[in-house]
């Protein structure tokens, strides 16, 4: 699905020298590269404050901690989604309120938001799934109307740009009160281990999140808040500084690979290629198809037999997971999300895909679909 080895080989001299410089100084924790990376990412994303942390899940947790919500406060979160958002909501003794997603772009279905509101609703967490922004204009209008915080999960869409109806363009993570991301190795901007960051335009929130990520201390051994220990390693920051220089090229390579798949698969009966939203560009963290003929799992198994990797993100909605059954959801409550969990399949998508590899992949997909 990804080829991090070839990417490393291509960038090896730059990466090795940046990481070796950290090793030579042994400044492994909070070395200067961490701050430099944060500043460079602020500039790249046009976001006032980037607070580095240990991973994307911590970023979500620290974001919610910073909002200082009362126990039981309700947080709206998409049902068809990675688990991290729901997990941190529940861990902080807040209540995840799952919401339906829309079929074409996989974002929160903004037409249904009013129906989930209660006096306890405090936050909405749009997730920019697969590399495209959720419908943020509608999310922001809804949040403003009902006085909600907006926390964007940008783990799959770093650098994606959203265009508002008045023509204003903003980057994913800069539109809500807080944005969060992950530098998990396979992400568009990935490190060599775990890493994450939190974004905000608000200086006060940024300061609170810095304190929270550092054991709640503003000054050494003075604990003002109950915090966590969540740091981005200097080695990872040094590597990320190198990779950030290549992020535009990484996205261009992903888009080129997506265009190849599009052309080859657009007319295959039983497949829906990724639709592009008018309001967001697409940075193709995943290239996700919907299978409307035969069974998605049959396609997946047949591809596997041909040596073609594929993945299902995600095979089950969060509201139906055992861990979340205590919240009273049942099958049928979110028909779109539940249907997507049965029909989506993602093909290999990364910066090093060759046309030969893609030709083999699409030939395999076409052959299987013709036989289904
Ligand atoms: C949408 C989304 N949110 C959050 C995360 C969590 O990031 P991490 O694995 O760095 O904790 C991920 C990672 O897969 C993700 O895809």
Q: Which architecture of the largest domain does the CATH hierarchy give at level 2?
A: 3-Layer(aba) Sandwich
The span between the termini is 23 Å
CATH class of the largest domain: Alpha Beta
Query: Could you estimate the helical fraction of the residues in percent?
Result: 25-40%
Look at the helices and sheets and give the structural class.
alpha/beta
Treating each run of at least 4 consecutive H or I residues as one helix, how many helices? 11
Q: Estimate the global geometry from the Cα principal axes.
A: globular
Major beta sheet, strand line-up: 1-9-8-5-4-2-3
Instruction: List the uncertain runs.
Output: none
Q: Say what the CATH topology of the largest domain is.
A: Aspartate Aminotransferase, domain 2
H/E element string?
Answer: HHEHEHEEHEEEEEHEEHHEEHHEH
What does the largest sheet look like?
7 strands, mixed
Mean pLDDT score: 98
Would you mind describing this structure in some detail?
This protein has helices at residues 4-25, 32-45, 56-66, 84-91, 136-145, 203-213, 234-245, 247-265, 296-305, 335-343, 355-371, and strands at 49-53, 74-78, 95-99, 121-124, 149-153, 161-163, 169-171, 178-182, 196-200, 217-219, 222-223, 271-272, 287-291, 344-347. The protein has 372 residues and is of the alpha/beta class. The strands form 4 sheets. A 7-stranded mixed sheet has the order 1-9-8-5-4-2-3, with helices on both faces. The chain has a 3-stranded antiparallel sheet with strand order 12-13-14. The protein has a two-stranded antiparallel ribbon with strand order 6-7. Strand 2, helix 4 (84-91) and strand 3 (95-99) form a beta-alpha-beta unit. Pyridoxal-5'-phosphate binds next to helix 3.
């Amino acid at each position: 699905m990804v080829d991090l080895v070839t990417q490393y080989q291509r960038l090896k001299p730059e990466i090795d020298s940046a990481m070796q410089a950290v090793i030579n100084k042994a400044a492994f924790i909070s070395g200067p590269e961490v701050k430099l990376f944060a500043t460079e990412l602020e500039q790249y994303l046009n976001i006032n404050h980037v607070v580095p942390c240990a991973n994307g899940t911590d970023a979500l947790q620290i974001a919610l901690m910073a909002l200082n919500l009362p126990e039981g406060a309700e947080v709206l979160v998409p049902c068809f989604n990675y688990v991290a958002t729901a997990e941190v909501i529940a861990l902080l003794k807040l209540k995840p309120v799952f919401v339906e997603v829309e079929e074409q772009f996989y974002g929160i279905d903004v037409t249904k938001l009013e129906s989930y509101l209660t006096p306890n609703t405090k936050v909405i967490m749009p997730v920019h799934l697969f590399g495209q922004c959720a419908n943020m204009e509608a999310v922001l209008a809804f949040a403003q109307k009902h006085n909600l915080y907006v926390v964007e999960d940008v783990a799959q869409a770093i650098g994606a740009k959203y265009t508002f109806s008045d023509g204003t363009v903003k980057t994913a993570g800069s539109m809500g009160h807080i944005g969060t991301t992950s530098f998990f190795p396979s992400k568009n901007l990935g490190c060599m281990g775990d890493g994450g960051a939190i974004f905000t335009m608000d200086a006060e929130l940024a300061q609170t999140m810095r304190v929270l990520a550092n054991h709640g201390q503003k000054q050494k051994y003075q604990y003002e808040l109950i915090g966590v220990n969540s740091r981005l390693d200097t080695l990872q920051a040094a590597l990320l500084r190198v990779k950030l220089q290549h992020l535009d090229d990484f996205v261009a390579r992903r888009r080129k690979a997506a265009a190849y798949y599009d052309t080859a698969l657009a007319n295959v009966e039983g497949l829906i290629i990724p639709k592009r939203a008018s309001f967001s560009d697409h940075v193709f963290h995943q290239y996700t198809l919907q299978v409307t003929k035969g069974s998605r799992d049959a396609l997946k198994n047949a591809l596997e037999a041909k040596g073609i990797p594929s993945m299902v993100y995600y095979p089950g909605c969060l509201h139906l997971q055992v861990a979340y059954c205590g919240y009273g959801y049942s099958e049928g409550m979110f028909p779109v999300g539940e249907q997507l969990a049965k029909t989506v399949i993602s093909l290999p998508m990364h910066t090093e895909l060759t046309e030969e590899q893609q030709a083999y992949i699409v030939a395999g997909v076409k052959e299987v679909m013709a036989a289904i």
